[in-house]
Structure of Ribosome production factor 1:
Amino acid sequence: PLAPGRVLFPPTFSVSEIKNKQRRHFMFLRWKQQQRKEKLALKKKRRKEREALGDKAPPKAVPKTIENQRVYDETTVDPNDEEVAFDEATDEFAPYFNRQTVPKILITTSDRPRGRTVRFCEQLATVIPNSHVYYRRGLALKRIIPQCIARDFTDLIVINEDRKIPNGLVLSHLPDGPTAHFRMSSVRLRKEIKRKGKEPTEHVPEVILNNFTTRLGHSIGRMFAALFPHDPQFIGRQVATFHNQRDYIFFRFHRYIFKSEKKVGIQELGPRFTLKLRSLQKGTFDSKFGEYEWIHKRREMDTSRRRFHL
């Protein structure tokens, strides 16, 4: 006898054969529910078998994901590589990592920005210490850069927008570059984040850089690190995270709270956004004669879902 509520379909039966749309949808939901129950029962059975075997139980199978099936990239950085260490000791960011320069950031916008982009820039300035917001009115970037260098700015961030929504970010390290162009998406301002914490304080945050494994990824990670002062003030308990997953860089800004010796709670402070690298250019911003180190070419580079560049 069948268990109550259990659906038994003939072996060759397909839900798509049902002509009535409502009935077809209902039967499909029943079938999905049944699949879920069977999967759960199998999971319970396996767990009981593992408990019965105890120490003799076979090791748990590692599930296949796109990340762990990643195509090997020959530029993946070995932490002990002498060549990489030499390059990093002599690159454009070396003065920052040697504590010879203190970051000073200019945040600007595309020409005549709208309200959402303006608010995003203001909130970004509260995340990055020692940053100044300047609203561009018809002034070309090529004219802004010499003025930035003359005033000892170490980085220039340009927020571009399309139809009143921030959709691009240009990050240029001064005075010698490089310049990275990112596509920006999923921007959430503070008021749009649920269960957010109180406004961030003026303490210097800690910076976490996750999964920047290749030479290109290292360069991008060092660019982000060079935006923040070298010595975080742990008393503020604020953390800025750049998490790279499948070449998408997710930015989050949190405050952590010690609930006890073992438990830590976190509050998101915002804003949050996602970046996708479009190009990395040598030197400062030059759209006409700039020399590019790396450009994202979709048709040539995105042939495999398991190939990542950062």
User: Anything to note?
Assistant: The longest strand covers residues 248-258. The chain has a mean pLDDT of 88.
